[in-house]
Amino acid sequence: MPSAVDASASSRELPIRNNPDIESFDIVDTYNRLLAEDPDLIKSLAAIEAMIEALRHVSSTTVHETMDLMKAQSAKLQSSVTNPIAVYHGTDLFQQYFLKQLKQPGPDRETTSSHRNFEVVREQLLRNGTAFVQKAKRARETIAWVGRRFIRDNYTILTHGGSRAVGTLLERATESHGGDPPRRFNVIYVVDETKPTESNRMVEALRIKGVKVATIPVSAVAYAMEKVNRVILGAEAVASNGGVISRMGTYQIALIAKAYNKELFVAAEQYKFGDTFPENQSRLGFPGFKQNIINFRSSRSQGQTSEDTCQCPSDPVDYTPPEFITSFFTDQGDLTPQAVARNILDFIVDKPVDLPM
């Protein structure tokens, strides 16, 4: 292993931005490949895996080099997608975890910013990277057993979107567990007409489990709400105030549920918790992210033209404030919106063995 002096000299001679190994690596292609290869992999986890792969392709020798690398790769990945929220949360979590690890004492009790201890941390990140994704997938099973006790026989559950956490929860509720008998319930599924494959996947998976499912358009949510016992939704990201950024239409469902005094629950893995603080629907806390949902025009032309068509992203989102949410089903239990403000990184670092990354 080269000395710190040699490392510093190497850094001056071959900075990260000119490293031929990283120049031959395409994080966008890697991210898209990971999503295509694993249908259970969500975007934030794919972003983390892609960042780990980026580290594998570079021989950085200092903390500053590595941080510069991660910032550059994160920015490149975020700019490649129309909706950067999941990518932002994944890459930000990875960078924060990395920095937190650098503050821990190394094997020689020195700071990990020393060259030798930095290498230990870097190798640990690479060695345990895959474990993060595996742990995240297991989180859905934990969430399922947390949430199933809120479902009773003969309940009608309303849900929306393609959340894998919600899908797993509803499927596990049909099974017996530790002497707890299976639930017999119905589901009203609000169909997203722009994503027929996703809708069909969720509906068919539940019907295979023996669940009676009714599908409705989003325009029928108010009509159907009086028949609902619980609303259970997923999340793309959970804000620091306990609010939720999720599929467009989530806020509308929350408003209607509130008007009918129906409890609304959100199933979300803790790695979706972030430090964002949305101000309103147009200011979600992600600089530069604009959905262009509303396009005002003044024209004498008759009918709708191509210029009138919404230029919004293919997966638009909205923000649901915490006061509309009864509780969160997470891999750390049933949490109130007020409780989700704690940082997920505190949980990760406190675990002594088999840590993600």
Notes on the protein architecture:
By secondary structure, this protein is an alpha/beta fold. Mean pLDDT is 79; it is low at 1-18 and 347-357. Helices cover 42% and strands 11% of the residues. The strands form two sheets. A seven-stranded mixed sheet has the order 3-2-1-4-7-9-10, sandwiched between helices. Strands 5-6-8 form a three-stranded antiparallel sheet. The protein folds into two domains: 4-127, no CATH class; 140-293 and 306-344, Rossmann fold. Helix 10 (196-208) links the parallel strand 2 and strand 3. The protein has helices spanning 4-13, 20-23, 27-37, 43-56, 63-79, 85-102, 115-127, 129-147, 164-173, 196-208, 221-225, 250-259, 344-350; strands at 156-160, 186-190, 212-216, 230-233, 237-238, 244-247, 263-267, 317-320, 327-330, 333-335.
